[in-house]
Structure formats: C-alpha cells, structure tokens
Amino acid sequence: MTTSPSVRHALCAPLAAAAVLVTAGSAQAQPPLEIGVQDDATFVAASGQALSPRRVDAAFGVARDLRARVQKINLGWRFVAQRGPDGETYDWSAYDQAVVAARYHGLIPQITLTGPGPSWDTGNGRAGVFRPSAAAFGRFAAAAVEHFRDFVHTWAIWNEPNWPSWLAPTREAARLYRKLYQAGWSAIKRVDPSARVLFGELAPMGRPEAAIPPLRFLRDVTCRTRGLRATRSCAPLLTDGFAEHPYTLRWAPTYPGPGRDDVTTGSLGRLRSLLRGLARVHALETPAGRAPDLFLTEYGFHAQSHRIPEPLRSRFSVRGFEIAASAPRVRQLIWYQLVAGRSRRPFHWDTALLDLKLRPRPTLLALRDWIRDAVRTGRIAPGP
Asked: Longest C-alpha distance within the chain, in Å?
C-alpha cells in the first residue's frame, strides 16, 4: 500500500526539521542525551479502537514537559498484515495516523518492528510469537521501510526477544532472533541504506523475572561463550546501535540486577564491556567496526506501588535519568507510558506520568524540573 497524497503532505511538512535534528546529533562524538516517549495505547489505534483526543493531547503535553525529541512506536506485524489472493499486503493506516500526529507535535517517529506475527507466518499456524518466519518478517520490514522511509529514520528489530511472551519457544529464542535480525537488517538497508537499525530491545533481568538474562541472550545470538570463544560458525552481525530496557521497577536505579548477566541502569557498564568484546572479535559491530552506542528505549517506574511510593518514585526516576545522562555512550532514554489506563486486573502495568483523570503525578513534575535544568547545562538535548 502506498501513502496517500494527504498523508504524505502531512508527514513531509516537518521532515526538514527532523533531518536537521538527526544530523546535528550524529555530528557530535558524545551528544547530549536524547529524551523520548512511548505510549502506543494512547497514540496508536492499531486494534481498531477510537483514540481519545483528550488523552492524546494530554500525552503530547507530557512529551513537551519532558523535552522529548522522539516518539517510539511498536509496529505489530499482525496488526497490519492482510492475506489475499495476491499474497500478503499491509494496511498502515493506524500507524500513518500516529506518525502524522508525532511529526505535527515536533517529535521524530522511531519504529520497532515486532510481533506478534500473522497466523500464516508462524510455526504453529496461530497469530503470535511462536517461531515466526524470518523470510516473511524480512518482507514485512522491507514493506514498512518502503512505506515510511521519508519520515522514519531509526528502526529497531523485535521487542524483548529474550522474554517468552514476545518470542517462543524460549530454548530457541536466540537463534530465532538472530534470523529475524539478519532478515530485518538486510531488508531495511536494502530499501533505505541511510536508515539507523537497532539491535536488541532486550528486557533487563533473568530470574526472578521470566526473561533470558540479556547478556547471556546476547552471547547466544552472537554464538559466543562467556570468554568470547565461538560456539559455532556464525557470520558477523552489523548494527547501528544497541537497544536495552534497563528497568529496575521494584528497586533503586543503581540496582544491578540479581544476576551477573542482567543489565539495568545500575549495570550499564556490563553491557558496554561485552559490546566492546564482541566488536573486537567481529561478532557484533557497527559498519565502522566499533562497539555500538546504547539506546535505552524503555524506562520507567510503576505508580501505585506499595514498594515504591510516589515520593520515592520521583527520586528514583530522576536518579535514573541522571545515570543515563552521565553514562558513556548512552544516546537515548525513552520513558514508557504517559497516561494511565483502566484495568480490572489486580496488577497491571502503570508507569504513567498522568493519572486516569489526566492529572500530573509528582514524578512528572520532578522529571520536568530536572530536565529543564539539564537542558540548560547541556546534559539533555533540547526538545522541539
């Protein structure tokens, strides 16, 4: 499906400004930290639901308060794929709307191409994340980049592939992700050689969580032992950046995680060290042969938490931003969820900065004040 003239006109209006921002950031050896936001439930009508204008406007207000430059969007393969007599086609309309709105509000859209996959492209014939076809994912990635190439310049491949609800079965997750990444990288670069492609989007911890610890997962994907010896013959992987979700959630941001293969804001040095080693043995490196920079593409702390009440949440959130702004080679930090959603479940995800009535929570006010000062001192890149 091609972009309609009206959508293309709306998207093109702020394109020149976006290009200036991307170019300016890449021209510096260690640019100020770039802030981003993500809230697909508020911004993307991918499940057919109507968006709430009040929620959308309030969420963009939060983005302005945080001086955000980027809006990250997870583009779910199943939600756009359609199967017809001529093969697989795609309906991008919900994501067109989100990209148009982001650019209208001065934000640079950044897309993660991810599951679930459509039923005809998975290993068990059901829509989901069980053995998704890498070849079909590559075709999906190529179509997405062809559609959005004039407006989206940063892409990531799959969301939290080390978490079982995102890629299954767990025992095959590393090999599956390697194939998905290779197919995605090749497809994206073939359509748009100048695009920036991120590897990872990894969940931060193994036990007590359900994820494969990110450093172990990374070694498995790159076919390396802890000592960086090859476990089998694997071609080198290229990337333009490494995406990590360094949540601590129930602990202080300095908490390194319970295992030595975990990566949180408190243990980013572990990840930098492994990435340097992998670049040295040419297992994962940038096209220039270097270790990739870090993009912290999901972050936040839960509201309504018995363990971390709101005043402590405010302090922990600011401290997390301070760590990211000070850490070497960290390029980006994205706060996940802006507006609280309703749920009947006893526990549901709520890292929102506005409550159900769209009132700012104290954490938003604390972050706003800290970011304002950090922009003034050059630690944070100014927003639009």
From this structure: 58
